[in-house]
């Protein structure tokens, strides 16, 4: 009898921790919800305007779950079959996720069976939110990270599906819709700039990206930019460690 009561108390505490983590995660993802719904609806409109059925934006937003690449995939699906070109373009567009993954490995440590989904569900906005505060007070880290990731994906998939459904009911000019993704990244950068105490890393990223853009051109500058930024940060970290010792 006592053992059963202890198990019940443990389940209640676990349930409270899970719900508490969700209660903290949800309001923190509301700004992302606003952006993802607008972006997702725009993406759904764009897909249906190119002749794709609703199932395409639904499946692509859920399985690919890389907003910038999903916009690019619209033209890839309508162009000549070129798997090598698609692979290289995907690598260039999403190369930044390699660095996100390396940065988040320590954060995801100890999350157990949630870890594969946390890795799959990582996107720019989720990374920005989880890396800034991965374990708020009163939450379980694994469940908090899980709910942040899950909620953000729900916003994106829901927006894309809603846009596709509405796109079949409305007919209007969709030119310029793909620019909302660029606008979203700009807003995220400005928000991070406003909150950051040290802005040197952001300035390094801007200057290196601009230099690589001028050298390699707009179609090939992403990977060199990431490589140079990583090298600069490693050198700065090595220098700071030597000075500290």
From TrEMBL:
The keyword Metal-binding does not apply. Keywords: Cell membrane, Membrane, Transmembrane, Transmembrane helix, Transport. It is found in: Cell membrane. Its main location: membrane. InterPro entries: Brnchd-chn_aa_trnsp_permease. The chain crosses the membrane at residues 29-46, 58-78, 84-108, 143-170, 176-193, 200-216, 222-238. It is a multi-pass membrane protein. Signal peptide: none annotated. Pfam families: AzlC (PF03591). Belongs to the AzlC family. This is AzlC family ABC transporter permease.
